[in-house]
Every structure is written in C-alpha cells, then in structure tokens.
TrEMBL record:
<dbReference type="GO" id="GO:0009505">
    <property type="term" value="C:plant-type cell wall"/>
</dbReference>
<keyword id="KW-0961">Cell wall biogenesis/degradation</keyword>
<dbReference type="GO" id="GO:0052793">
    <property type="term" value="F:pectin acetylesterase activity"/>
</dbReference>
<keyword id="KW-0964">Secreted</keyword>
<protein>
    <recommendedName>
        <fullName>Pectin acetylesterase</fullName>
        <ecNumber>3.1.1.-</ecNumber>
    </recommendedName>
</protein>
<keyword id="KW-0378">Hydrolase</keyword>
<dbReference type="Pfam" id="PF03283">
    <property type="entry name" value="PAE"/>
</dbReference>
<dbReference type="InterPro" id="IPR029058">
    <property type="entry name" value="AB_hydrolase_fold"/>
</dbReference>
<feature type="signal peptide">
    <location>
        <begin position="1"/>
        <end position="24"/>
    </location>
</feature>
<comment type="similarity">
    <text>Belongs to the pectinacetylesterase family.</text>
</comment>
<dbReference type="InterPro" id="IPR004963">
    <property type="entry name" value="PAE/NOTUM"/>
</dbReference>
<keyword id="KW-0134">Cell wall</keyword>
<dbReference type="GO" id="GO:0071555">
    <property type="term" value="P:cell wall organization"/>
</dbReference>
<comment type="function">
    <text>Hydrolyzes acetyl esters in homogalacturonan regions of pectin. In type I primary cell wall, galacturonic acid residues of pectin can be acetylated at the O-2 and O-3 positions. Decreasing the degree of acetylation of pectin gels in vitro alters their physical properties.</text>
</comment>
<keyword id="KW-0732">Signal</keyword>
Length: 400
C-alpha cells in the first residue's frame, strides 16, 4: 500500500515537471553582481544585488525585457530589520533558480511576441521599489537604503552585456516591482540608445490613494514613511513633488501623467492585494467581519460589495492620467487577482482572462509593436466569465 502511494506521488511529480518544462523556460540560475558593492549598490543587509538572465536568440538578440521582482516595502528601521535577513533584504537568502513564465517565457506558443528576447528578472531586496539612496549606514542596525543604486548598477551591467545595442526594450514588474517600473520608467529609457523602441509594462503596480474602510489614511502614512526612510524623494517626479510633496508621489495616479515614455498598465480593478491591504486592512477589521469578503469578493455582503465597487470606481478615476494619453495603454480587468503577467495562466493560455476578446499578452504585444492601441476597462464584477478561476492566495501585510 505504501509503495503504491510512493509511485503515485512520483508519477505526479514527473507530470508536474513535464508540464513545467513544456510551458516555459524552466529555472534560470541567479547571478550576483559582486562589483556593485564598491558603488554602494547593495541590499538592505549590504549583500550584492542579484538577477536572473535568459539570453535571447534569433531576431530577439537585440530586444530586452527587464522585469522587476515585487515584495512590498518597509517604511521604518523596525520593518526593514524584519526583512533584512530574508530574501527581500538579502541576496544571501534568495533562491538560486527562478522560474520564467508568462512575459518571461522562452516558448513562442506561450509568449508569442517576446519569447526570443533577452529576458532578465532583477531580484528585489531594498524595500523601496528601487528608489532609495541614503549614503549613511547606521552601525547599530547596518541597514543600507540603496534601491536606486541597485537599479542603476544592474542596468549599467546589462548595457555592458549587450543591452547598449538594444533596438527594443521593455521595463516590466509585478506589485512593488510594477510600481518600480512606473517610478523608474523614464530613468530606464534614459540609459537606452536614442533610437531604441522603449516602453514600460507595470503589472499590479498601480496602487491608489484612498482611506481604508475605517476612514484611516493608512497607506498614505505608510508610503510617506517609505519615502522618508529610504530617501526616495530625489528619484521621484519633480513636477509631482513640487505640487503634492514626496509621500504622495509614490502613488502612480500623481506621477503617471508626467511620464514621457510610453507605458501600458496591467491591473485588476479589484486588485486583491489592494482590497485586502489598502481598503480592508486587518487593523481596520478587528472583529474579522470582512474576512469572508477579503478572501473572495463573491462572498461579500451587499453592503460590503458596495464598498468594493466603490474601490473600483476610485481606481478608474485614478487612471485618468493613462486614459488621456494616446501613447499609454491599459488592460484593466475585473478579476480578483494580483499580478498577471508573470503567470502563464493569466498571461497567455486558452482560458486566460480577456478584454475585448483579447488576452493580456496579445494586448501588450499589439500596443508595443503599434499594431493596435489598447485601452480597455472591464465591466463591473461579476460580469467577466474569463475571470472564473479561483482567487490566488495573496499575502496580507500585517502592518495594514
């Protein structure tokens, strides 16, 4: 009986491995950028930055996707110390292999427009969406706030590896990495050759400015702490900071209209991380009355669903800087999900989410190559049948 179970598990493992092999690049090894340490471009703990690189081929040898990993933020010394000895604060703790799927996939059947490009995933270990730059290091905690230096060091390293000859390039990212792709979009383009086609594709990085269900401005205060702790102001839009102050300029809605580089926003109007951490954070729900709703918005009471629909309305209003520009695109579906470009299931498969009968992969590809503009906002939940897959587990940040 026991032997039979072992064989069943082994067969299942083989099937899973074959599926992984058939659908993507598999696992790409890590590279540590040791010489960045001399420039002070280091993780929170002082270890060197790291990235994964899957080389392009054929017509894609001069095309580059640089994808920024996500993982939230730390807003003060205490929360940064909590990350310092984890993969989000130290390259010493990172997995040495990374799976490349979705927009990073190397197979044409699963990533038709970008499969043969050079594809890079920059690991996230600074806690500021690659915007921090504080020279001083407190000897008592040995924390380094150097996210902006990490971004520059890795980009310059990639330029020396061939990106200086780029004809096409995309800066993408998921969650905090998606926000980083927004905040660093023009900066990325400034490193690339003048004649290159350079665009940005942030995924689930359009975090909006609003109070939680208790009326507390929790995310506003949190982002203010991130910017102050990491010294991020110097890397934020000057036009924005002069009008609103640096803290608010961590919110895309206040900076996106100032971004000159073409940008395509991929986001759910019911972003599950934002609803669980910004609209209904745990601290705003001490009795757990929202728990079922937070787990799955199809379980919300009528009053709770009204609040969630209100979030969608606020999200759409916050997109005005995208909607009013012909160089910008957007795919705003009604799925209850967070991050869609890295997962094969939501990027490009027969049952992937669609808007206007178009998958995210095709919408981004059409927009990037100027085949067709794409600016679509989905109808209100629960209208889209292509959002039928179960909600993926999204970590709830206890700080909220």
């Amino acid at each position: 009986m026991e032997i039979s179970r072992i064989w069943q598990w082994l067969n299942l493992l083989v099937c899973v491995l074959l599926l992984i092999k058939s659908e993507g690049s598999g696992f790409v090894p890590i590279t540590y950028l040791e010489d960045a340490e001399s420039k002070g471009a280091v993780c929170l703990d002082g270890s060197p930055p790291a990235y994964h690189f899957d080389k392009g081929s054929g017509e894609g040898v001069n095309s580059w996707i640089v994808h920024l990993e996500g993982g939230g933020w730390c807003s003060d010394v205490s929360s940064c110390l909590e990350r310092k000895d984890t993969r989000l604060g130290s390259s010493k703790q990172m997995d040495t292999q990374a799976g490349f799927y979705g927009i990073l996939n190397n197979q044409q059947d699963y990533n038709p427009d970008f499969y043969n490009w050079n594809r890079i995933k920059i690991r996230y270990c600074d806690g500021s969406s690659f915007t921090g730059d504080v020279e001083e290091v407190d000897p008592t905690n040995n924390l380094h706030f150097r996210g902006a230096r990490i971004f520059e060091a890795v980009i310059k390293h990639l330029l020396a590896k061939g990106m200086e000859n780029a004809e096409k390039a995309i800066l993408s990212g998921c969650s905090a990495g998606g926000l980083a792709a927004i905040l660093n979009c023009d900066r990325f383009k400034s490193f690339l050759p003048n004649g290159a086609r350079v665009k940005c594709v942030p995924d689930a990085g359009y975090f909006i400015h609003l109070p939680d269900v208790s009326g507390t401005k929790r995310i506003e205060n949190f982002y203010k702490g991130v910017v102050e702790t990491h010294g991020s102001a110097k890397y934020l839009s000057k036009s924005c900071t002069s009008k609103y102050g640096a803290g608010l300029c961590f919110f895309p809605q206040y900076v996106v209209q100032d971004i000159a580089t073409p940008i395509f926003v991929v986001n759910a109007a019911y972003d599950s991380w934002q609803i669980r951490n910004i609209l209904i954070p745990g601290m705003a729900d001490p009795h757990g009355s929202w728990q079922n709703c937070r787990d799955d918005i199809s379980n919300c009471t009528p009053d709770q669903l009204d609040a969630v629909q209100g979030f969608r309305e606020d999200f759409i209003k916050a997109l005005s800087g995208v909607q009013n520009s012909p160089s910008k695109g957007m795919f705003i579906d009604s799925c209850y999900i967070h991050c869609q470009t890295e997962m094969q299931e939501s990027w490009f498969k027969t049952d992937a989410p669609q808007l206007a009968n178009t998958t995210i992969a095709k919408a981004v590809g059409d927009w990037f190559y100027d085949r067709k503009p794409f600016q679509h906002i989905d109808c209100a939940f629960p209208c889209n049948p292509t959002c039928g897959k179960p909600v993926l587990n999204v970590k709830v940040n206890p700080e909220f």
